[in-house]
């Protein structure tokens, strides 16, 4: 047998052993190159998109560090990875722009490796375009096989040409690979992957695949490990957390999972995202109402306030059902902060439809809202719909909506002015030296003077002055 065959024979067939094997091989190669260069090899990940991608990037960084890279600070690193998003067209355009820039960077450092992964790579036209026009890219992979990063780097180093590995879907959920968390005291935790909702504007079900829930035991043991490692707040992540557990061999509801997470000693705050209004159960509302740890915040995407548009969007609730759900939530959790996502300019949206959206915004009075201009995504049902709304009309509606959302949020956030609230201190303030930035249970940000040693702790803060979306406060001395 040749040496190469020997190597092939010893590659473990099952995960995570296989990836641990490749991390070791890449580590040897990184060490050799680093010795040649007389310095460590750096890596840098740039993350686009949502919390899911942010969590994936922590996993990818965990693999890179295990494979011998050290963390760099920018794109002038030896390994640069873009974890992409494709939910709207402008996310894609940004990636092409940055790739153009990286071409010049790589000319100065020809050993540099450039990798692309994430939702945008699950679109065949994108991969085609990169293969043709961005030849300086070394590795392309998708959303289903991020756990394979070490193996793909190894292949690239061996084959010395662009490696493309995109899976159309997967049932696999690989546990127990290294993860490098951005914050020591809070963490995202995936509870499910994929989405089965097929909202007619949305590309996510096509790029993230069918819904798969993790076993509750795996989730609970991950959280227990995080807590023993200093984490006090978890954010349970899924595209539609309210349908968690339905397809497991032993089905369990999301509300029941939350109750079990609540019992973990040392864990102080529980958040979750994203909730689909159609699946939000009374059981969940009751669990939120009686919980001591679940934060008083719910992100409840509205998308549109017009029942006619909601039907075209395939959202499966009406304006009235949404408003009634908000009433039930507020009756059970009176001080809950509500936030939302709204799309303006969905095909066929009339001025009357848009007024319905404004009406919901005025009635619900959100703490904040993300507002988006509709973006046509190839392959989604809405892309083929007639009556795409003219750009100027959309822009005018978008500006009106934004103003309404901001004016209301400023009044709503003010309700806490003058009160003292528990705040999880997250970081030093990036604008004001000597200040810290933290978050209320309801997710509003507060800045106040304090020592960096408080980062990661929950402290009482007096919310002295509301400033639109955030507060200026002062630490309350508890000695
Ligand atoms: N155009 C604009 N916004 C979109 N979103 C999802 N798809 C599109 C699209 N095609 C928004 C939705 C979703 C958020 C994550 O992104 O509001 O809740
Ligand atoms: Fe997240 Fe969706 Fe963007 Fe993918 S396409 S990164 S799932 S928002």
UniProtKB/TrEMBL annotation:
The keyword Transport is annotated on this UniProt entry: no
- Annotated binding of [4Fe-4S] cluster 2, by residue: 195, 199, 202
**What UniProt keywords apply to this chain's record, in alphabetical order?**
4Fe-4S, Cytoplasm, Iron, Iron-sulfur, Metal-binding, S-adenosyl-L-methionine, Transferase, tRNA processing
Tell me which EC number(s) this protein carries: 2.8.4.3
Where would you find this protein in the cell? Cytoplasm
Q: Where does [4Fe-4S] cluster 1 bind?
A: 50, 85, 119
Q: Does the record carry 4Fe-4S as a key word?
A: yes
Instruction: Using the record's annotation, list all stretches that form the MTTase N-terminal domain.
Output: 41-158
Q: How is the cofactor bound?
A: Binds 2 [4Fe-4S] clusters. One cluster is coordinated with 3 cysteines and an exchangeable S-adenosyl-L-methionine.
SMART domains according to UniProt:
Elp3
Enumerate the NCBIfam families for this protein. Answer: miaB-methiolase (TIGR01574), MiaB/RimO family radical SAM methylthiotransferase (TIGR00089)
Task: Specify the protein name.
Answer: tRNA-2-methylthio-N(6)-dimethylallyladenosine synthase
Major location category of this protein: cytoplasm
Described by its record, this protein's role is as follows:
Catalyzes the methylthiolation of N6-(dimethylallyl)adenosine (i(6)A), leading to the formation of 2-methylthio-N6-(dimethylallyl)adenosine (ms(2)i(6)A) at position 37 in tRNAs that read codons beginning with uridine.
| One cellular-component annotation, GO | cytosol
């Amino acid at each position: 047998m040749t040496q190469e065959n020997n190597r092939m024979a010893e590659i473990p067939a099952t995960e995570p052993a296989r990836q641990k094997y490749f991390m070791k091989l890449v580590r040897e190669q990184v060490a050799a190159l680093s010795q040649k260069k007389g310095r460590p090899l750096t890596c840098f990940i740039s993350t686009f998109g949502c919390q899911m991608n942010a969590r994936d990037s922590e996993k990818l960084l965990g693999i890179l560090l295990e494979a011998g890279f050290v963390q760099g600070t920018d794109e002038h690193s030896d390994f640069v990875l873009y974890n992409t998003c494709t939910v709207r067209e402008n996310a894609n355009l940004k990636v092409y722009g940055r790739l153009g820039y990286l071409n010049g960077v790589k000319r100065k450092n020809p050993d540099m490796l450039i990798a692309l992964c994430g939702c945008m790579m699950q679109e065949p036209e994108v991969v085609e375009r990169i293969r043709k026009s961005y030849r300086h890219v070394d590795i392309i992979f998708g959303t289903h096989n991020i756990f394979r990063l070490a193996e793909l780097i190894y292949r690239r180093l061996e084959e010395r040409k662009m490696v493309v590995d995109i899976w159309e879907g997967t049932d696999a959920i690989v546990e127990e690979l290294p993860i490098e968390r951005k914050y020591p005291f809070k963490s995202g935790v995936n509870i499910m992957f994929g989405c089965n909702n097929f909202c007619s504007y949305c590309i996510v079900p096509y790029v993230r695949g069918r819904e798969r829930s993790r076993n509750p035991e795996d989730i609970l043991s991950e959280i227990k490990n995080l807590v023993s490692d200093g984490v006090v707040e978890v954010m349970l992540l899924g595209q539609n957390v309210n349908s968690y557990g339905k397809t497991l061999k032993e089905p369990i509801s999301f509300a029941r999972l939350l109750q079990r997470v609540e019992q973990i000693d040392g864990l102080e705050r529980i958040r979750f995202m994203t909730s689909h209004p159609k699946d939000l159960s009374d059981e969940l509302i009751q669990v939120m109402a009686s919980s001591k740890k679940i934060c008083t915040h719910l992100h409840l995407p509205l998308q549109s306030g017009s029942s006619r548009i909601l039907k075209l969007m395939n959202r499966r609730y009406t304006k009235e059902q949404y408003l009634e759900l908000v009433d039930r939530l507020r009756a059970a959790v009176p001080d809950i902060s509500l936030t939302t996502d709204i799309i303006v300019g969905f095909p066929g949206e009339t001025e009357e439809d848009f007024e319905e959206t404004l009406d919901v915004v005025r009635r619900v009075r959100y703490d904040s809202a993300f507002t988006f201009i509709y973006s046509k995504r190839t392959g989604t049902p809405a892309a083929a719909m007639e009556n795409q709304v003219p750009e100027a009309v959309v822009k005018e509606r978008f500006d009106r909506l934004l103003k309404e959302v901001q004016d209301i949020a400023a009044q709503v956030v003010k309700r806490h002015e003058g009160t003292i609230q528990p705040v999880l201190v997250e970081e030093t303030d990036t604008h004001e030296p000597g200040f810290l930035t933290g978050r209320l249970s309801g997710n509003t940000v507060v800045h106040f003077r304090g020592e960096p040693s408080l980062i990661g702790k929950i402290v009482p803060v007096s919310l002295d002055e509301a400033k639109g979306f955030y507060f200026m406060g002062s630490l309350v001395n508890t000695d």
